[in-house]
């Protein structure tokens, strides 16, 4: 499928621990057969203040998913277009059908601020408590490796090269 912004819509479903965490419609921006890019407004309810960033109504997320990588990158912009930064979910590779994109959240996350000065590893305690390392050691290793690689790219100032 090769699509441009506004050509088609798809439902994005984030699954965590076998249950749907959130599901929302998004516009397909591009799909090269491996990476699919979608755009959607903030799908959460109200404001979510994480301390280092606020997600709020009016924010726009351009989201990059790969069919062969263990993460999804979400570029976050305020309603006025100002870049807030990038929120990365460590996930299993995306599964994409004609009308749905599904990713399984593996609890680890990375935040990179717009200026690249703030790089935060998130939810490592949730990851440890999830029991993934015991249930699926291979997946846990892939998740940790993905987080390490993304953090390194961010600290080297090369994070956005993933999105080119």
From TrEMBL:
Organism from which the protein derives: Streptomyces tirandamycinicus
Transmembrane helix in keyword set: no
Highest taxon listed in the record's lineage: Bacteria
Keyword annotations from UniProtKB, A to Z: Hydrolase
DUF402 domain ranges (all copies): 39-154
InterPro entries: DUF402 (IPR007295), FomD-like_sf (IPR035930), Ntdp-like (IPR050212)
Protein name stated in the entry: DUF402 domain-containing protein
PANTHER family attached to this UniProt entry: PTHR39159, UPF0374 PROTEIN YGAC
GO molecular function ontology, one term from the record: hydrolase activity
Pfam family membership, one: DUF402
Positions of transmembrane segments: none
